[in-house]
Prior knowledge:
The complex is a heterodimer. Chain A is of the alpha+beta class. Chain A is built from five helices and five strands. In chain A, a hairpin with a 2-residue loop joins β3 and β4. The longest helix of chain A is centred in the C-terminal third of the chain and has 14 residues, at 105-118. Chain B is globular and about 85 Å long. Chains A and B meet through α1, α2, α3, α4 and α5 of A and α1 and α19 of B.
Amino acid sequence: MARINLSVDGSNVSDDVEPRMLLVHYLREKLGKTGTVVGCDTSNCGACTVHLDGRSVKSCNVLAVQADGHEVTTIEGLSDTVDGDLHPVQEAFRECHGLQCGFCTPGMIMQSVDLLNDNPDPTEEEVRLGLEGNLCRCTGYHNIVKSVLHAAKSSSGEGANA
Amino acid sequence: MTAVQDAPSKEIGRDRRRKEDQRLITGRTRWTDNITLPGMLHLAMVRSPFAHATITSIDTEAAKAAPNVVAVLSGKDFGDELGVCINAWPITPDQKAPGHSPMPADRVAFAGEIVAVVVARSAAEARDAAELVDVEFDEQPAVIGIKNALQDSVLAHPDLGTNKSALWVFDSADAGTGSDVEEAISKARADGIVIEREFRQQRLIPAFMEPRSVVVDPTGEQITMYSATQIPHILRFALAATTGVPESKIRVIAPDVGGGFGGKLQTTPEEWIAWAVGRRLGKPVKYTETRSESLMSAHHGRDQVQTLTLAADKEGNVTGFKVHLDADLGAYVAIVGGGVPVLGAFMFNAIYKFPSYRFECQTVLTNTTFTDAYRGAGRPEATYAVERIMDDLAAAVGVDPLEIRERNWIKHEEFPFTTVAGLEYDSGNYEAATARAKEVFGYDELRAEQKRRRDEGDRVQLGIGVSTFTEMCGLAPSRVLGSLDYGAGGWEHASVRMLATGTVEVVTGASAHGQGHETAFSQIVADRLGVPFEDVEVLHGDTQIAHKGLDTYGSRSLVVGGEALVRAADKVIEKAKHLAAHLLEASEDDLEFAGGRFSVRGTDSGVAIQELATAAFAAHNYPEDMEPSLDAEATFDPVNFNYPHGTHLCAMEVDTETGEVKMRKYTCCDDIGNIINPLIVSGQVHGGLVQGIAQALWEEAVHDESGTLVSGSFVDYLLPTAADTISFDVVHTDQPSVCTTNTLGTKGVGEAGTIASTPAVVNAVVDAVRHLGVDDIQMPCTPERVWRAINSGGKGGSTEGAAMPHFGDDAGGGNQEMPGTSSTEGAGA
């Protein structure tokens, strides 16, 4: 067991974890952050994408111990869900019907936020390339791409910082 | 109380944003794997690495000794309470079907079949211990592939004596729906056109994003199963029918379900094992599959060889179509396994007036993962066959593919039309959908560009693919299902509860897993009852709440479940009217109902339906001849399928030197009758398109010759990404041909995109290189296959080679661990 101290969605947490424990399992099983999900076992699908110090990572590809001393943001910390004040990218996914079953959505949104932080005014091609690591089976990507472009447009000039 | 002026404008047809989204975009989700119960134990499965083997022994001692392991159980540890996996649709009375135990004790019939289950306090500990289960197998010869199976030299199930499960035949001459197809073919051979083709429908994997998961909680009076399923009601029925637990003691909940596409239309070995273990131990248990397990053991789809003979006169008027399918069931006849190809039987004639038709379907058993429904289920295969061969007919006659279709299709004034397959198409307008699609696509301009590039001998050639599809959906009229020997009906149930404060609960037997029922059904009820959209709550997916239903598949939820909802709402209005007349001291004949309010004609006296709900709750003043309740329920059994149709046009660029294909443009005009929510409809079409396009270009489940699934991870099974796809033009006709057999005039849309798009894409690829002597390219149209087709005029090479070009000759299994010869440390994923 190894002791880790980190910040998750703005709260400081501290736990003893097995060195082999993946960050995604730590989030889900120890912290109950079930908004972040596991969709594959080969780091292809991106459903588990979270932010580590503000950059997107696939949390199935990071050990919990690697997050020691760092800041993690999950879909549950992206906005204050209690009063319904959504992040512009969340709002764009809703507005543009960028989700159906919603399973890929947390990862897709976290990746999109990172993409827009890097490139606040992307072309369709840049959005498509930027989301290549996230799989969706429902939407055919059409409305996901539209959502990201919509978010870029609606927050142009102010960035899309988490 | 909601004042009447708040009543909404018309909801149906509005692009309402979805009610479901708020929780899904904020991570406030209830996936089955999110559920944690006190004292819950976790399961890991030990699976066979062999496609066919007898089980010699299972040594569980080391696993039992591992930390926090509670139990290790195999098939022989259970009796009848383990139950069986059912086949609900024996397609012929003499269908041969092997017994299907969830966890066989003696013999496995496909790689991935479960032989033991480990129960531990954590999922990780269960998986660790599964690796320690030592299973001795005696490997048996395995039969892989349809053509091998047909030879019967190696048997998937030796006890059956054959691999042939059932032969199902429809013949229009015998049925009296058309003439004799052999006669038509003979005549065409003498003085017409005969086109013979063999098409391969490769095996696909539904690959829903949420891996299957099941939680069983035996601690209450009812045993509860939570499952990532499309079919909670059928699941409950099958548990009761096969495991000895009374149906009234079973509660099934499908919480948030992350996609299905037919892949969760199954009653699974994993569910049955979790059920048995939970009951045995008296503790809640959870099993969640890994993606590799999902790809290996959740059912696959498609997998047919289609042998086709099309007869036509010299002008291209089709005179007959003969279809023989050989369909791979895999190792077992799954819940509707044999029925899936038979669903295609009625669709090979598509939108056309073929005078004669014969359909034969031979199902075969092999030592591979069992197959069953995948989006479209039988109809994409049929549509592919007919739309591909119609292009070949156009080429033979020397006319545009759309022209050959128009010569043969049913004209809009000819509806209702009884087809050669015996279905009555109630409405349609193929001319209008085609005209609109051509206009949006820029058909004539693209044809001109194609000619220019061809004349100039460009390295990159342009191809235009056409698919004018129809489908039968809205499964299904119960009597029709009965005539096909299906084991259940096709009705749907709904109830409407008027709550005391005026809000409305709607209960539906349909079970959504991403489709947006909560939004679309709210729109329907809001309009019908005249209450605000926000005041309607749609409840589903829990047999304690929605006690009756037949679930979600076959593009049925709106057209069957939505109609049940309309009828339940209308009953509420009838009751409310009676109460309103009483309270307003007026005759019912003098009342009119509009905008959620009953008014006495010619006066300003009236009462809102939501006020009546409160009055019925208080029950202080109501007529003697009614109960104090406005609630109502309805069960709707459709009288016919419905027949959405559309024209899909695809432009593909093909690099003739490298074989690389690139989608340039995709336009579809679908006629799906009246639209409840255009936003949801376009989403359904987009997603459907990409699944169909993926069959054309990328996806294939490949078993090697020993029966190992070599496309057993997302590294090898090529799901398309955002970078592989384009944005689509999705349009509809201005005047839809509405369905005449439901009140709302709606037709199904969930499967349309998938059914239509595959042939449009392959037709486009072939069209780009037809002038080079190519008339077919086997799916998926990988660059290698396209290049080979261009350079040899053939179909583009063998399936396996093209599907895994990155494997060396000696690899035999890529990144898959190869099984040992006689023993393995359990492959418990």
